[in-house]
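Dear colleague,

Thank you for sharing your sequence with our group. We've completed the structure prediction you requested, and as agreed, I am returning the results in plain text so they can be pasted directly into your records. Please verify that the sequence below matches your submission; if there's any discrepancy, let me know and we will rerun it promptly.
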Amino acid sequence: MSKRLVGPMLLVTILFSIAPRELLARNLTCVERPEAFWQDEPDSWCVIEDVDLEESSEDIHFPEHPKIYLRNFNVSYLSPTLLFKMRSVQHLTVESCSMTKLYMKPTLNSMEIKNSNISEVIIDKDSNYELQNFSLEGIYRKPLPNNYIRLTHLEELSIRHNDLTRFNMRQLNGLIKLKTLDLSYDHIEQLIIPDALHIPNLKELYLSDNQLEQLPTNLKRLKNLETLDLHSNQIAFLEMSRFNGLSNLKKLVLSGNRLQISTLEPVYLPALEKLEMIGCGLKDLDMLYWKMPSLKYFNVYDNSLVAITNFPDSFTKELVFVPTGNRWSCLKLEAISAKVTIKVKERDHYCEHKVADICCNGGSIDFNLVETLDRKVQLLKFQNSILYEKLEETNHKLEKVIGVVDQRVVRK
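Please find the predicted structure tokens below.
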């Protein structure tokens, strides 16, 4: 090697050896994002994007910021070591990232993971978490985290746009502060609510855009529920008395299900204020046994209703009723409009007869008898299946009682 090169190389080596460690570290910085990127509060987040790290990256400095948004941030393991370098972070969002594992930092207040390729989210079973809001969105076919029970302060849990098929609420048992659970767009076919479920403060349950064909059993275990959204599932036959026991329910959304509604037992929902049945394909509706003394808003927009049988006399002008987009008999609609306040969602035009600006049929109504009878037969079959379930349940209880009596007799 030339003597001319030895001196400069030696000098560089010496400088690196004596340079402060901070000068050699990689300092990550916040980048500006266009206003359209944000839904709200664009100035409050520090965005760090397009970063590739090694798991063993120790010489990394994160900005001192309470809200960090990692986008296209790729590392094999977002480990405790890396996370604790985010010393000030309270709210962390991870979007479009690729990671084998992600460790949840116990001191976070909120955590959002969306549209990312993450194989495992780790909730440390030995840590006490302060997390209040947790969102998992678009983590397709990945196993959900274990140890939810460690999230003792959790108030809102959103698990949306995932491919779950089946969800057992047992894994959330004991989350006594949980108020909101959102399981929308998850392809759920079966929701299991165990007998011993203890989520006493759950107020809102969102199940829209799933594949549920019937209501989950044990729904009444969620006795403090105030909002239940079942929009756009596959529910075809609905026994309304299945909602009995939800004495605090204020809002019920059944829109987007192709419904036939049955009432084998009286329906009593004392706190219900808002009921939506939009676009359900309803052709008949009998409200004979419905008791909803607090109802203030009832929307049946975009169905095929000609009449509502036994529309409750208890409904008053305080109830706002949205009947637009049906095939009303003028006589029947007039009787309803005398009781409640009609709200026009979209004003009907170019029809011969109207009641409260709603188009209706003023003459005789041509019912398709075969179609009507077919619907009635299907509904009777559904009602019979419900009765059979109740009888089986009663027989099972009787068998237990008889078994206990037999044992006592044998002992004597």
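Summary note from our side: The CA atoms of residues 169 and 193 lie 6 Å apart.

Kind regards,
the structure core
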